[in-house]
Amino acid sequence: xxxxxxxxxxxxxxxxxxxxxxxxxxxxxxxxxxxxxxxxxxxxxxxxxxxxxxxxxxxxxxxxxxxxxxxxxxxxxxxxxxxxxxxxxxxxxxxxxxxxxxxxxxxxxxxxxxxxxxxxxxxxxxxxxxxxxxxxxxxxxxxxxxxxxxxxxxxxxxxxxxxxxxxxxxxxxxxxxxxxxxxxxxxxxxxxxxxxxxxxxxxxxxxxxxxxxxxxxxxxxxxxxxxxxxxxxxxxxxxxxxxxxxxxxxxxxxxxxxxxxxxxxxxxxxxxxxxxxxxxxxxxxxxxxxxxxxxxxxxxxxxxxxxxxxxxxxxxxxxxxxxxxxxxxxxxxxxxxxxxxxxxxxxxxxxxxxxxxxxxxxxxxxxxxxxxxxxxxxxxxxxxxxxxxxxxxxxxxxxxxxxxxxxxxxxxxxxxxxxxxxxxxxxxxxxxxxxxxxxxxxxxxxxxxxxxxxxxxxxxxxxxxxxxxxxxxxxxxxxxxxxxxxxxxxxxxxxxxxxxxxxxxxxxxxxxxxxxxxxxxxxxxxxxxxxxxxxxxxxxxxxxxxxxxxxxxxxxxxxxxxxxxxxxxxxxxxxxxxxxxxxxxxxxxxxxxxxxxxxxxxxxxxxxxxxxxxxxxxxxxxxxxxxxxxxxxxxxxxxxxxxxxxxxxxxxxxxxxxxxxxxxxxxxxxxxxx
Length: 674
Ligand code: GP9
Ligand code: MN
Description:
Elements: H1 2-18, H2 20-39, H3 47-62, H4 69-97, H5 103-112, H6 115-121, H7 126-129, H8 133-147, H9 150-157, H10 160-180, H11 184-192, H12 196-221, H13 227-240, E1 258-264, E2 275-276, E3 279-280, H14 283-291, E4 293-295, E5 298-299, H15 306-316, H16 326-329, H17 338-343, E6 347-353, H18 362-368, E7 373-376, H19 377-380, E8 386-387, E9 390-391, H20 393-410, E10 413-419, H21 429-432, E11 442-447, E12 454-459, H22 466-490, E13 497-503, H23 511-519, E14 520-521, E15 526-527, H24 540-545, E16 551-554, E17 562-564, E18 568-569, H25 573-581, E19 601-602, E20 608-609, E21 613-616, E22 621-624, H26 632-655, H27 657-673
Parallel strand pairs: 1-10, 1-13, 4-17, 5-18, 6-7, 6-10
Antiparallel strand pairs: 2-3, 4-16, 8-9, 11-12, 13-16, 14-15, 19-20, 20-21, 21-22
Helix pairs in contact: 2-3, 2-4, 2-8, 2-12, 3-10, 3-12, 4-8, 11-12, 13-26, 20-22
The structure holds (2R)-2,3-dihydroxypropyl phosphate and manganese (II) ion.
């Protein structure tokens, strides 16, 4: 044993004394990345990102051993410069945008970011320079090693390849150790790469930046292949569509009206029909459905880009991309959008949100979608009440009123998108802060066994459950919407304005939550058994169909009214509003709901929904929603159609086909002019 310890001691001594430069590089790089987290996300003690940073640096460092010792300094020093620059840039970026730099944005965001802001806000702080110590340390160590003739000594004993391989193995062991600590949520988020803060917190700076580089390159690489066939498919599809403008009773009905769109975060439609102890969860939304047009079978068509996908589909009538997220990976493509078309009619377009502007890359994407201005909380709102992710909806809406008023005074017409925030999963903050007064306990009458008298008993069956918190949170969101509409009215902003409210996606509640909700028996404080005649089964289809969200088009004077039960998707909004407001997107994949006969909602998963059937593409089976059967041909045709729509949408997004077509048309025009 003693011998073994001595051996280890001897080996370590030898290793330490002959790997000084390598170890300085590794330790300074890991320390600098930790320093960055210290100044930004603040989780500097967490083991996961330290391990991840260590693994990356070890692997990069290992390759240094393939170089002769006297030249190794150049290698390690160059990497130290790269890492230091990464830290400094990210530090400055974080101060300004509370997020980390992405390669995909670096090139073009400079043109889009408000230059005025950039100058005011881009002030370097002392801490941004603190990372330079790594360069100094490397240089200092190198000079001393030179003095001590270290490189000559090492040259005699070092077998580069062996050291390189050994170090690589150690690096890979650290990687393995790190991976074993990851959850599937961590991996999913790394893959999607949109929550940049989260990735740096869990994966460290170097893995983040490396992963970001790869996902930023993906959109550049994929358009290199398959362009011709995609462009052909795109051309043929749009040539096959009829150009005729269908007129109906809604055509141009709102020409010249302002639009305020409320992006109602996570509001699912079932809450509108829900009453707890006789009280409506959403009294305001319910009132608006009666006073306006209410689309009761409306579905969001979001993919991994959740909120941002809905904003994209709403504004473009295209579907989310099949790889990555449009707002992150394909935001620089050309799209025909509602703001762009309204601007042709002299509208001023803005969007507002109570969270950070960089979330979902909105500060960049909203500009490229054609919004004139994007307000976000750091700059334009006073953060006087925080719930969950950011400014509370009630405060957000209150503060928005004078801003909208000013806009309405300065511009002839406006289109505004108000992105709500409070009702965001996990819905617990609002409950913990006791900011909503909505009792979700089940109240029922019971005979008191001792007194024999009737009394009201309360079963806290939803207390502390996600669904229970969700209902409370939705009640708050509903109050916020109600308050906003009242305040708009008081400010005289409703006279010539159409309010559009849409749920951006479902609440992502588990099936088991619904099973408990629909099958709870307060008398026994338990869930009904499956063979109970009152048991409500929630299978795959029930669950999917229940994911629908509200869509309401409302005006104060109740100019349009009624319930539309036809199935409808987020991509149908643009053509439907287009018919009402007098604009048209020839690349729209959805239809004006008042002109289409048999509508189909195509989901990014390949599943589709018509009034007759919900079809599960993965399982190749569907559920009939009507009594009459459908033919195999009906299913095949809809399958083909769904695939086509998804491919067209993807082709436009990945290959930037709208821009390319516009450019070609312009060239032809110029050529014709001579
Ligand atoms: C955050 C918000 C939420 O700013 O809009 O986005 P989501 O998580 O729903 O996609
Ligand atoms: Mn959302």
